[in-house]
């Protein structure tokens, strides 16, 4: 019984791998969206990547988060809206990673607008953000995948996870 189960599992795994396509690639496009975790609320994000080389993608991302903070005896509600350009190098070719996986790292450059509902002491933090990201995706079908990314910089830091869809 164990041999039959192992054989069926192997056939299922191989057929799943055969259905998946390689990462974005030159001329490919994908939409990414999800939520994140960081010290400034729970961000939601969405964006798009464009393959400009088999191993390089360029794209953009929009994000929004809101949170409350107490400073001395006052409570302040803040929100941050961001728009960023992103560039990533995909390591699949150089590391010979299976095609259903996508491991990448890159840079982001954006503008982040921080606003509060009243006179928050640090309300002047709007401005340019520069950061790095490291992430990965697993495509469970020919179009859909899950993603996980870690980022750090002067405006963005933390983790985010969500879905990617090739279009």
UniProtKB/TrEMBL annotation:
Record key words, sorted: Signal
Signal peptide: 1-20
Keyword Signal among UniProt keywords: yes
Residues annotated as domain Outer membrane protein beta-barrel: 11-154
InterPro entries, per the entry: Beta-barrel_OMP, OMP/PagP_B-barrel
Superkingdom to which the source organism belongs: Bacteria
Protein name, as recorded: Outer membrane beta-barrel protein
Lineage: Bacteria, Pseudomonadati, Bacteroidota, Cytophagia, Cytophagales
